Amino acid sequence: MPHLFQRIKNYFTEQLLPPAAFELSRHYLSGIHFSIKEKKVKSHFISLLKGGTLEPSFDKTNILNASSLGQKLKEGARRLHYSGNSVSLLLPESCLKVFVFSFDNLPSAAKEKEEFIRWRLAKLIPLRGADLQISFNIIPSNNHQKVILTLARTETIGEYESFFTGHGFKVRFIGIPALALLNLINSKEAQDFMLVNLGEDEMSLAVVLNSELALYRHKTFLVDTLQAMTGTERTAQALNEIENTIHFIEDKEKRKINSIWLRSTSLEDEESCLSFLKEKISLPLQIIQPAFPLNLSLREKQLLSPLLGQIS
Known about the structure:
- By secondary structure, the protein is an alpha/beta fold.
- The protein has helices at residues 66-80, 110-122, 154-165, 177-181, 187-190, 231-252, 270-280, 298-311; strands at 20-24, 28-35, 40-48, 86-90, 97-103, 132-141, 144-153, 170-175, 193-198, 202-209, 212-220, 259-264, 285-287.
């Protein structure tokens, strides 16, 4: 199984990524083909998925309609004009769990270090069964050691890998959208900031302090099963999470967040979402709009931005 995160800017060792990348969510499948030599995106696609095709989950089957999803992948792959087979893959954030730990000291021996980190993790979440995979990276941070840890079920990751293998691709790197998006923000210029990845039915928050990832949170929206959630209701829940995180950082870290960067995949008007949040939040708020060589709408840029972050 590949390491879950191989390209988080400023944190991990630089790696050469495959020139093609895909992102999967409950609502869409997207892909890009990037020319490393020319440093530009050669082709891309965004394909909406029918309800019931994919149900992201940490501990349940994710791909419910492999035939429908496979057809979308075949069609998208043809549009990419990619002759290789190695790809990067961004998975729905519900499939994985991410933790950011800070330690004064860690054992020097690799085995003892992992056991100590597992012990810390076990205080937060039960680690039962042998099918859980842990991947972590240790980053020196002032007088501390910061650990960015990801937890996933082998069966869940294997489900996605097997699906892509069955369609002629080899998954070399796996990540999630929120952390890939961090590559699109200059952390030295933005300084202390919060990234908000707002989806149709979930959201994630990543806080960067002093150019280092300090906090990651993922939340699923509370949905009324009898009535579809409106964009206003979704944004109101997002606002509550943003405000709670701002207060948490002020209380725990004794630092203030200076700006908020937003990526929204809502099917509704992104500008309405931005206007609502700007009205309610006193901090500077910007929508992530990565440079893209093609003539795309704001929504297309928003949907493709994690893939651009993954290959940048």
